UniProtKB/TrEMBL annotation:
PANTHER family: BLR1237 PROTEIN (PTHR42928:SF5), TRICARBOXYLATE-BINDING PROTEIN (PTHR42928). It comes from the Bacteria. Signal peptide: none annotated. This is Tripartite-type tricarboxylate transporter, receptor component TctC. Belongs to the UPF0065 (bug) family. It comes from Propionivibrio dicarboxylicus. Pfam families: TctC (PF03401). Keywords: Receptor.
Length: 326
């Protein structure tokens, strides 16, 4: 009798859970959705969020409220999302650092990117570029390496924060070239770029979207892109691999959307479809590409697998170069 009662209780619980899940999926969304950008305004993640915002609101039939919650390499804002109710009304716009790299770099993360978040969609790929302030007497990657070796500890590179994609990319570059350069972390890529143009730091590796407008204006000098192949947008820029004969040096950023763990499947599907449609809309797609953000899209399950793959990859890199952040 007791066993029968327990079985009925479990079945009732499962039925109730399924009922509310389906009910939520049928009515979702019925109020504004909060999209947390865990970085200051002006960076690549913020640019994506604001470009896709109007079309996303149209697809979902509700306002999309963007909130910039910067700090700790994107972990403060992302942690707020991880601890929010899994109802689809609080989302995180993040990147390679918040969803993958930080797990292998920080000793004490407030959230687990795999266990505490629900991947929704990989939104865009973000090619990285190596740039220097024009005061640096180097017009190629080989010249930069030679200059850095001749002046150990004198060059400073900026990043958007400890454990960020820019930080990891530069540390990997240092490791592979045997150079000694000092890291200056900033609270966001915007502040870093300002100091880079002013010459307070001499070089950086960051996304094309944040740096190339200043290269075009002559305030920065681009030396190479950091992917495995040249950029279709800037075909004259060599890769670091070919410019400096550094096989295996490949760093490319990416962005995505996630929600708290436990999000109902119906809501995941609704959000995934909405983001896919929003960033595929021609005018939105053209704007993304014009800012060097390459649309990806795809299923939520694909993004989940990609996060696991990237997390393992960068944890190994961090271990190999002995990079740890308290």
């Amino acid at each position: 009798m007791r066993r029968c009662s327990q079985t009925l209780s479990i079945l009732l619980l499962l039925f109730t859970s399924l009922y509310f899940s389906v009910a939520l999926g049928a009515t979702y969304p019925d109020r504004p959705i909060r999209l947390v950008v865990p970085f200051p305004p002006g960076g690549g993640v913020d640019i994506y969020a604001r470009l896709v915002q109007p079309e996303l609101a149209k697809q979902l039939g509700q306002p999309i409220v963007i909130e910039n919650k910067a700090g700790a390499g994107g972990m403060i804002g992302t942690d707020q999302v991880a601890k929010a109710a899994p109802d689809g009304y609080t989302l995180a716009a993040g990147n390679i650092a918040t969803f993958a790299m930080n797990a292998g770099v920080y000793k004490n993360m407030p959230y687990d990117p795999v266990k505490d978040l629900t991947p929704i969609i990989q939104t865009v790929m973000v090619p990285y570029v190596l740039v220097v302030n024009p005061s640096v007497p180097a017009r190629s990657v080989k010249e930069l390496i030679a200059y850095a070796k001749a002046n150990p500890g004198k060059l400073m590179y900026g990043s958007s924060g400890n454990g960020s994609g820019q930080h990891m990319a530069a540390e990997l570059f240092k490791s592979k070239t045997g150079t000694d350069m000092l890291h200056v972390p900033y609270k966001g890529v915007g502040a870093m770029v300002i100091d880079l143009m002013a010459g307070h730091v001499q070089l950086a590796i960051a996304d094309l979207a944040s740096l190339m407008p200043h290269v075009k204006s002559g305030k920065l000098r681009a030396l190479a892109v950091c992917g495995a192949a040249r950029s279709a947008e800037y075909p004259d820029l060599p890769t670091v691999i070919e410019a400096a004969n550094l096989p295996g040096y490949e760093t490319i950023g990416w962005q995505g959307i996630a929600a708290p763990a436990g999000l109902p499947k119906e809501v995941i599907k609704r959000l995934n479809e909405a983001f896919n449609k929003a960033q595929s809309e021609l005018s939105v797609k053209e704007k993304l590409i014009s800012t060097s953000l390459t649309p990806v899209g795809g299923a939520a399950e694909e993004f989940a697998r990609y996060i696991q793959k990237e997390t393992a990859k960068w944890a190994k890199v961090a271990k190999d170069i002995n990079l740890t952040v308290e």
